[in-house]
Model the fold of this input.
Amino acid sequence: MGIVRQTASVRSLWNIFEQGQDAISVVELVKQLKHSMNKTTVYRILDRLEQEGKLHSFNGSDGLRWYAKCHDCSAEKHLDTHPHFQCNECGKVECLSLNIPIPNHLNHQIDQAQILLLGQCDACLA
Amino acid sequence: MGIVRQTASVRSLWNIFEQGQDAISVVELVKQLKHSMNKTTVYRILDRLEQEGKLHSFNGSDGLRWYAKCHDCSAEKHLDTHPHFQCNECGKVECLSLNIPIPNHLNHQIDQAQILLLGQCDACLA
DNA sequence: GTTTATGCAAATTCTTTGCAATACT
DNA sequence: AGTATTGCAAAGAATTTGCATAAAC
Done:
């Protein structure tokens, strides 16, 4: 795993991403890992995994920081413009695998895009 | 269902939006209005103005809540998809007046879009 | 006069920091 | 051995809440 050492904590945390839903808030992770590691450690591991390009983070509409496994964003060549969908009711966040075209004639240098779509998920609609 | 009253505080706060840049963080507003009203009041007025449709809010990459005057979003008919641009260096946020097309074949009910573009503003590039 | 707005202080919640101790390679 | 990682406690920062008072309609 490169610079990031293979500690038990890192494996526990990564495991959650391998098995669970694709986007999880830090708060939720801290809650789930409460008995196996300190919350500070959770924050720090997430930081490292993001720097390594294994995860990407964004801010939910709830003001929390969310992390998700990187799919195409690891390429790093082009601007990653896949949106995240957050349910207004249950708060769950989901990565959507598609590309939202961003016009490039804006006279701004754009390095990153955070696209958050808010609505209701199928479960909450039913 | 209460009405929004025209108080001196509301006018002071609104004044900042009329004169200043189009997007301001709550923290900045609290700082600017420190001597004329309590920070709790700032939060509450912003809340009301947003409910009235005069302002819209979104979360910056800094984790802060930002507010901006509504332009087209007041129409409320269609999905407002104008992006906000935040400079990674100075942190300033700007509303960009354009429409980012969101595909509607996603099988999600989408009520709102928060599009945050990150990069460097002209001032910081120079 | 009734209802909404405000101030103040305190509480909550999320995140970061410092430092000594521990575990990885 | 050397360096990255962790735990813990404490600090910081943003936002919310409860309640009594004040101001708007």
In short: Chain B is about 30% helix and 25% strand. The helical segments of chain B are 8-19, 26-32, 39-52, 122-125. The first strand of chain B starts at residue 23 and ends at 25. Residues 3, 5-8, 26-27, 30, 39-40, 43, 63-65 of chain B lie near DNA strand D (CB under 10 Å from a C1').
